[in-house]
Automatic annotation (TrEMBL):
<comment type="similarity">
    <text>Belongs to the dynein light intermediate chain family.</text>
</comment>
<dbReference type="Pfam" id="PF05783">
    <property type="entry name" value="DLIC"/>
</dbReference>
<keyword id="KW-0505">Motor protein</keyword>
<keyword id="KW-0217">Developmental protein</keyword>
<protein>
    <recommendedName>
        <fullName>Cytoplasmic dynein 2 light intermediate chain 1</fullName>
    </recommendedName>
</protein>
<dbReference type="InterPro" id="IPR022780">
    <property type="entry name" value="Dynein_light_int_chain"/>
</dbReference>
<dbReference type="InterPro" id="IPR027417">
    <property type="entry name" value="P-loop_NTPase"/>
</dbReference>
<keyword id="KW-0970">Cilium biogenesis/degradation</keyword>
<keyword id="KW-0206">Cytoskeleton</keyword>
<keyword id="KW-0243">Dynein</keyword>
<feature type="signal peptide">
    <location>
        <begin position="1"/>
        <end position="25"/>
    </location>
</feature>
<keyword id="KW-0966">Cell projection</keyword>
<keyword id="KW-0493">Microtubule</keyword>
<keyword id="KW-0963">Cytoplasm</keyword>
<keyword id="KW-0732">Signal</keyword>
<dbReference type="InterPro" id="IPR040045">
    <property type="entry name" value="DYNC2LI1"/>
</dbReference>
<keyword id="KW-0969">Cilium</keyword>
Amino acid sequence: MCPLYIAFSLITVVKLETLWEIAKAEVEKKRSHGSEGNGADIGEKSVFFIGSKNGGKTTIILRCLDRDEPAKPTLALEYTYGRRTKGHNTPKDIAHFWELGGGTSLLDLISIPITCDTLRTFSIVLVLDLSKPNDLWSTMENLLQATKSHVDRVILKLGKMNSKAASEVRQKMWSGMQKDHPDRELIDPFPIPLVIIGSKYDIFQDFDPEKRKVICKTLRFVAHYYGASLMFTSKSEALLLKMRGVINQLAFGVDKSKSICVDQNKPLFITAGLDSLCQIGSPPVPDSDIGKLQAHSPMELWKKVYEKLFPPKNISTLKAIQDPARDPQYAESEVDEMRVQKDQVMQIFVLGTGTVQEKFFQDLETN
């Protein structure tokens, strides 16, 4: 057989195995191993940052990755990664960092990074802007509900594929709570590890003491109810180091801190499972008023108390602000002009008559 023909045949065989096919084979290989073992890729974890718009999520990620660069606005869903060396001649741990931009306006994107393949090594970091207390509850509630609903669906799907893995996820929910904790029957842990970070503490510390008390107690209750860790941070180097330690624990599995600070006059720092309803106390409202607040659950009661002092902004106003297409920080004159033109075209087709549509396109051709 001709050597040239043999060489050509070999090249053809090699080309048939494209990078896409190799990638698919690797994914299938991981899935098959996951069905036989515990399914978690050792040394590889994911951390998903959600929270207040302009609340400091990007800054926190850059700080954790030792990147000295200015933070840029997050457009939608952004990804980066970090590596950490365990020791000499050992593979590096890899941490996948996801960040959801837009506050609560892009909830549908939550489903992209959280899948059956990533769930068992996934953690959530909720960053709340303490300097905007009127937006705090709605931001927290919408993001946690949307994330929890999606995670619950993924667990159900995982259970059909790998019942052992799904069972491990459910058991892990309670890992931060001691078996003899007095509140064990009164809380509902988040399905995957959760950390709540209150940002911009430097502004918050100048609030009226009573307002600080309500915010602190409310966040302590929410964090404890969901089995989450809670901490406040700012530009202070000491607070940034504490925050970095918490994120490193999620991303690289370093030892969890056991320190605690529940003094409302200082930055809160409470590791999951170390707080209690007894220490938190009842909602900060006179006993005579509690009976007037009709609530079907403790969470709803705390919400009513909180929103009484910090009423949320008008929902329609929030929606207008949260539309990325109309956000001034993303303005581009040429693109925006084309968008206006397209909107006019759509309006003509929806509302206009045939004559109006014909005149519109005649004017368009003339211009």
